[in-house]
Amino acid sequence: MSSMGKTSVVSLCIYPLAYDYTGKPFIPTKPLILPKSLSSETSVSSLARGDFRNSVSTKASILSVNRTGKDCSFDCNVEIGKFCEVGNLQKAMELLCRSGNLGLVDVPTCCCILQLCADLKSLDNGRKVHSFLNTAGIEINGVLGSKLVFMYVSCGDLVEGRRVFDKIDSENVFLWNLLMNAYAKMGSFQDSVLLFYKMLETGVQANSYTFSCILKCFAALRSRREGEEVHAYLLKLGFGSCTTVVNSLITFYFKCRRIEHGQKLFDKMCERDIISWNSMMSGYVVNGLAQKGIKTFNEILRQGVGVDLSTMVVVLAACADVGSIWLSKAIHAYAMKAGFATKMDFDNTIMDVYSKCGDIGGAVCIFQNMVEKDIVSWTSMIAGYGREGMSNEAFELFRTLRKRGINPDVFVVTSILHACACSGSLENGLKVHEYIKENNMESNLVVSNALMNMYSKCGSMENAENVFSRMTTRDIVSWNTMIGGYSKNGLPSEALNMFIRMQLQFRPDDVSVTCILPACASLGALERGREVHCYLLKNELSSDLLVANALVDMYVKCGALATAKLLFDKIVLKDLFSWTIMIAGFGMHGFGREAIATFNEMRQAGIEPDETSFISILYACSHSGLFDEGWKFFNLMRNEFHIQPKLDHYACIVDLLARAGKLSMAYKFIKNMPLEPDATIWTVLLSGCRMHHDVRLAEKVADHVFELEPENTHHYLLLANIYAEAEKWNEVQQLRQRMIKRGLKKNVGCSWIGMKGEVYIFVSSRTNHPEARNITLLLKDLSKEMKEQGDASRKKYALINTEEKQKQFALCGHSEKLAMGFGILRSPPGKAIRVTKNLRVCGECHEMGKFMSKKFGKEILLRDSNRFHHFKDGTCSCRGYW
DNA sequence: ATAGGGTTAG
C-alpha cells in the first residue's frame, strides 16, 4: 500500500470496501420511504423507477377521494396528470399554481411535472415546482428528491442538483451515476471521482454504469493506479464479463498507454459488440498505431461485424494519421454506399482527413457543401487553414462564425491561435487575444498555453511573458512553451532560468528536455547540456527521435563533435532532421569531406534531401573550401531534385566563389541571381573581400549592405575591420562617425568559457576579469614571441600603430583572447579549451589561437557566431577562412 | 431514466 503514493488518500478506501462487499452477502438498501398517502396498489418497482406517468390517474383518484372525499381535488391531480401525459407543461404548471396553495396537489403529481420539466429541459418551471414544494412544506426525500435532482441535472443546473442530492438520503445508484456522469461530461472528472468514493463509503452498490463512468474519469485523469484498483474491484463484484464494462476497461487501458492490457481484454471477451471493436480501433489510433487501427477495420469487415458511424469516423482518423489520400477516398466511397455520408459528424471527419492529407481544396469543398455545420466543422476548417499556413483565411473564418452567432469555444480559439502561430501572424494573433480577453477566456489553461505559443512563434516573448505572468495555474506545457520560446527566440539564458524555476514545481519531461537543449546549444554550454543528458538517462525519459536529434545538435554546437557522432550513430531510425543536423555539424567544424560522406550515406539510406539539407551540405562545402563539390551539389539540387535555390543556397555559392578568390565572379553572380539579394548575401561577399583584402570591392559591396540594413552594427564593424587590416585608419574613423551619427553602438564583444561548472565571461576591453594580471602578462609574452617569429600577416596585427581606441573599435577587443588565455592558465592538462564568442572571431585572435595551440600543445575550440575553429598544432580547422 | 466507442487543438 505504501507504493500508492500521494493519491492513496482517496484510493485507499477501495480495497477495504471491496473486501466488505465481497466478504458479505449483498447489503440490502434501506426500505424505500414512500409517500404516506400511496396505496399498496401502486407497484413498488414502478415507484422505485420514479415512473408515475402510466399510473397517475388511478393513483390520484384513490388518494384524493381518501383525503377529501370530494370531486374537486380528484380533478386537479388527474387533470395535471393528463396534461403531463400529452406534454403540455404550460397548462400543468398553471393548474399546479392554482390548486397548489390549497394543498390539493399530491407528491406523485409533482414527480410527474418534474419529469416533464426534465424532458423539456425547462429549468424555470422546474424551479417553480421546487419552490412550491418548499412553501407547501412537503418533505423532499425518496422518489420526490430523486426526481428533483434528476430535473436539475437534466436541465443543466448541476450545482442545485447536487445541493438537493446532498440533502436527501440516496441509495439510488441511478442518481449517483447520473451526477457522476454529469460531472464527467463537463470535464470535472475530479468531482466525479470524489462522488464515486463517497458512494462507496455510503454503502451504495456500484453497477455497470458506475464503472463505465469512473473508468472514463480515471482515463481522462491518467490515474492508472486508481483505474487498476477499480478493475480489481469490479472483478470481485462479478462485472468481469459485462460487455459495456469491459469496453470501458479497454478504452481506459489504451488511454493509459497499456496497449497489451487492452488487447488482452479484447481477446478474452466472449461477447464483442461493435463498440468493443471501435474501442480497439480508436485505442490503436490514440496510441499512434494508425496502421493497426486500419487492420482492425479490415478485420471488422472480414468478420462481418457490421459498422456504424463511429467505426467510419475512427477508421478515417486513422487514414488521416497515415496520410494516405487514396485509402481515405476508398473508405469515403465505402461509407457513402453504406449511407453514412449524409451525417454531419461524418462530413466533419472526412473534411479533416482531406485537410490532414494535404488536400485543402477537397476539405474546403466538403465544408462549403455541408448543409448543416456545427462548431467542430468550423474548427476543423480553421485548423486545416492553419496547417497550410493560411492564417488570413483562418482568421476570416473565425470572423464569419462569430457573425453567424456561434460562440467560439476553446477548440476554436486554440485552432485560430495555432494558425496565427504557424504563419507567424502577430497582427491576427493580437486580434484573437483581444477577443479572448473580452470573453474572459484567458483563465483557461489551454487557451493561455496556446496564446504563449502563438506569441513565441511570432517572436514576441514580451507578450508571452505577460500571459505567463497572469496565469494562476500553470501546467508543464506552460513551462515548456516558455522555455522553448526563449530557446527559439535567441534568449538562451532566459530559457535556462525558466528551466531552473520550473523545477520548483515540476519535474522536467522529455518535452522540457527538447526545449532546453537548443538553449544549451546556442550558449555553447556543454556542461549544462551534459547535465540535461544525464537527467534524461537517470529518469529514463523517453529518448524519442526528437530528443535524440536535439542531443546530437547540442553536442555539435557545444563543440563535442565526437560525442555527437557517437549518439548520431546510435539512432536506429534516423530521419531527415538527424541527417541534416549531422551534416551541418561536420560543416560547422570544418569537416567538409565527412559532411559529404554523411550526405551520401543519407541518400543510400533512402532519405530524400530537402531544401534545408542542401543548405547544410552547401554550407559544409563552402566552409571547407570544397569548390567543385559545392557546385556539384548545387547542380544536383537544381537538376535532379528540382529544388529551386533560395537565398541561403545562393549565399553558399557566393561564399564558395569568394573563398576561392573569385570575387568579381561572385559579384556578377549576385547581380545575375533570379532572386533579389538580401543583406546577408552581400555580407558573405563582404567577408570574402576581407579575406582577400579587396578594399575597393568591399566599399562597393558595403554600399549594398548599408542600403538594405543601415542599422546593423555588424556591417559597420566588418567594413571597419577591412579598413583596419589595410591600415586605413581615416576610413575607420569616418565609419565610426557614421555610426555615432545614426546613434548606433557597437555590440560589445563577449566571450565565455565554462570550467568546473562555472561560466567565466570576458567582455572586450574590460580588465575586471578573473586572473586579469596573469592573463595580461601571458598575452604580452605571447605577442612578443609571435612578433619575433612572425611572418608578414602576423606582423600586420602586431605592428598596428595607432590610437588604442580606434583599434579596439575596429577589432573585436579581444575578449576571446582573454578567455583563451584564461583557459591556458586554468584548464587541466590534456583537456581541450572551449571558448564561445558572441561575434565573429577577429584576425589577430585567430592567429593567437593557432599560436597558443602549438606552443602549449593544447587543443582549443573557439566557437564564434559563425562556426567552430579547432586550433591544433598551430593550424585551424577553418583553413584560414573565417 | 443514467453508460461504453468517434470528429476539432496543444
UniProtKB/TrEMBL annotation:
PPR repeats lie at residues 172-206, 273-307, 374-408, 444-474, 475-505, 575-609, 712-746. InterPro entries: DYW_dom (IPR032867), E_motif (IPR046848), PPR_At4g14850-like_plant (IPR046960), PPR_rpt (IPR002885), TPR-like_helical_dom_sf (IPR011990). Transmembrane segments: none annotated. It holds the Pfam family E_motif. Residues 794-882 form the DYW domain. GO terms for biological process: RNA modification. Keywords: Repeat. GO terms for molecular function: mRNA binding; zinc ion binding. Belongs to the PPR family. PCMP-H subfamily. This is OLC1v1021261C1. It comes from Oldenlandia corymbosa var. corymbosa.
